[in-house]
Records
---
Amino acid sequence: MTASSPRTEPDFPTEDAVEAFLREHPDFFERHLSLLDVLRLPHPAGGSVSLIERQVSLLREKNRYLEQRMAELVERARENERMGLHLHRLARTLMHAEGLDAVLALTQEALRDELKAELVSIRLAAQDSSDLHRLAPVELEQFEELFARGRAICGRLPRPALEALFGDDAAGIGSAILMPLSVDGRKIGVLGLGSRSPERFLPDMGTYFVTHLGELLAEAICCHDARCCATG
């Protein structure tokens, strides 16, 4: 009697090999539709579902995500359009403003209406600091870094800068936007928006509207105040 040869286990493909095969043959289940009802996958809510049911569920989830993203993009486009219209109307209004006081008042009104800012301050940089709109030389020093950046900053900002713009109201400000006003490198002034909420003006928020408004404001101020334009 000869000794029987040892039994060997079937040589099954590894999981990696199966995955590689399915990736190379994405139409495999189209040729073996019956497998879709046999294969079972765990369901997040418990139990199991067929592969085709899981695919349908995933497609529905993806569709809901895409619909949400589309709604966000549409709303953002509408918001940009609204802000563009506000900027256009403000530009036309500033063109007909009779004097510096009118320019500042119209701009403050637009900011309160559009950005719902609780506090608005526009302070001018000029050698003559005798009126309320002007920044004294020592106050202007608080904004050297802001002018060096050349763009708006948002968030919880330094208290001395807020005090220079908002006076006694600075103590209650939780977040703010500061926008340097300049024309051809000349310091015109500083625009400040303040809120009591620390979440109102966040560091990563968009500043499209206030940046372009600041450019319009700086040009309008120059048209009515030669002292600002003469400031270096």
Note: The mean pLDDT is 80.
---
Amino acid sequence: MARTLHELAETLDLPVQGPDLEIKGVASLELAGEHDLSFLSSPKHASLLAATKAGAVILARDHADQIPRALISDNPSLDFARALRLFEKEQGCLSGHSEQAFIHPQAQVHPSAIIYPFAFIGPRAVVCENCRLFCGVYVGEDCRVGAHSTLYPNVVLMARTILGSNVIIHPGTVLGGDGFGYTPSPHGLEKVPQVGHLVIEDHVEIGANCAIDRAALGVTRIGRGTKVDNLVQIGHNVAVGADCILVSQVGIAGSSKLGDRVTLAGQVGIADHLHLGDDCRVGAKSGVNRSLEGCKDYLGSPAVEARKFMRIAASWNRLPDLVKRVATLEKELKALKTTKSEDSHEQN
């Protein structure tokens, strides 16, 4: 939906510079056209302003004199994200409850919810107002989908999974499946029934093809506002705090606890029964085999504090030279021992 620049300034509550203009879309500085809105996120990219064809740019006041039209912002990245929401086209084309969906007679589905064809909603499940359940969604018995939540195609909620409000689940994700629990027996591995459940709190977003297991006993919990990337595995009885960021291919083993605002970069692995403190950040491909204090950065496998890891990493490039030096010193030491032994024999 097109808006004038001055309308955008009023909606976003930002100072405006330059004559009004109809804004039809959003784009990067390199690709923007004369009716597009763009943004400058960092001063290091300021050279792009000279060549951009953008109709207007969201940027800091320090660079406003370089373009004819601007929205002045103390946080251009955040305000551009707010602007994007105004131009975002919502996915989906249907309304109401499709006759091709199965809704169990004991389920409660709010009239305002949108249920696409071939969705399944089981007994005693509750789907609250303004939810959207796309094709192929499975909602098992005793599940709850909170208000204004969206489940994209082929999302699976196994029995007793609870979603808060404003939750977004992307395609192919399975929530509340069995935890990986087995115990040895004389006849092999005996499956341990997983009788707990999974709670996803408000404003959580979970990417495509993730798996979050229900608890063996009690609750697996994902805290309010946490964002989970694609291809993440979270084991049974894990507790993830509020506003955490879990990047692609993270794996968290059972019963580990993450504090609030924890960041796990891509391919981080967390062993079972560990605790990561608030504001802990773990770098890509790190392996965590012990509990970590909060408010610190960690790298490596096994993970150590980032400063220590950087010192270790700096020494790796010197290892070949160190090996040569040690070999040379060993030869010199051997020669000294030989000379000393010969001198000793001559004295005798």
Note: Residues 3-87 form a domain with the Udp-n-acetylmuramoylalanyl-d-glutamate--2,6- Diaminopimelate Ligase; Chain: A, domain 1 fold (CATH 3.40.1390.10).
